[in-house]
Amino acid sequence: MILLDNSEQLLALFESLARSIPESLKVYGSVYHINHGNPFNMEVLVDSWPEYQMVIIRPQKQEMTDDMDSYTNVYRIFSKEPQKSQELLKNCEIINWKQRLQIQGLQESLGEGIRAAAFSNSVKVEHSTAVLLATEDILKLNASNKSKFGSWAETGHPDDDFEREIPNFKYAQLDVSYSGLVNDNWKLGKNERSLRYVKRCIGALPAACMLGPEGAPVAWLTMDPSCEVGMAYSVEKYRKTGKMAQVIVRYKKYLLQKNIPFYVSVLEENERSRSSAKAAGFFEASCEWHQWTCYPQNLVPF
């Protein structure tokens, strides 16, 4: 595959991916961050250029030093012909099948090729799925192809937007000092590797919270390297009080104002979260969110 490291090529790819939203949204969001500082040191591979059929986003080699760190060892994939992805995915120079890793995408049809490639490398695969939700502005990008997004680094943290207060509560930028709190309450976290990942996300990407009367966050949201909004949590004392909804609405408003792409995924059975997201202006996309967690037989999940 071809490594795209030219800024003009990456911008052209970004514009092209807009035409395939929502299926390309996870790769599209990753390329956005790569084009704006690349805080997670990711790289872009395509099967050919300028005409391409497959795009793979992966961390640069120096990032993937821990064979068990599936928070870092993440590959995000979009393919125009997902049924033909198997041969490319088998290649150990493209995917390091000796590591525990995650493959993420928004095309269920990628699964057959991923499972076949994993089997040929003696790797076990666990598949999970969720509902994909995005705003109307994002979903319309495939029609308008107007992918003009600013930079989080250029715009700075949203201090002005965050100053509006509710009595005894304050909307604020989520500080990296609260990484432990976020990690301890993240269903997929609660370990040292996840803590390093959480710190990195909060430190480099937009993250928001509602500070309570005690001065600590009572509800919060973060963003990942593919522009997916997640790790959402409300402390038990303040659930069903509307605090999370207030954070979502203000965070969404900020991202829209700064033209930062974003979307969310929610487990299908989580009706409350799906309803909350729709109430905040999100729409269910025509495709689903998919993740394939892969690990060699000699590496058991932690």
UniProtKB/TrEMBL annotation:
Protein name stated in the entry: Glycine N-acyltransferase-like protein
Every Glycine N-acyltransferase C-terminal domain range: 208-296
EC number: 2.3.1.-
Enzyme class, spelled out: transferase
Keyword Transport: no
Source domain of life: Eukaryota
UniProt-listed PANTHER family: GLYCINE N-ACYLTRANSFERASE-LIKE PROTEIN 1 (PTHR15298:SF7), L-COA N-ACYLTRANSFERASE-RELATED (PTHR15298)
Domain (Glycine N-acyltransferase N-terminal): residue spans on this chain: 1-206
Protein source organism: Rhinopithecus bieti
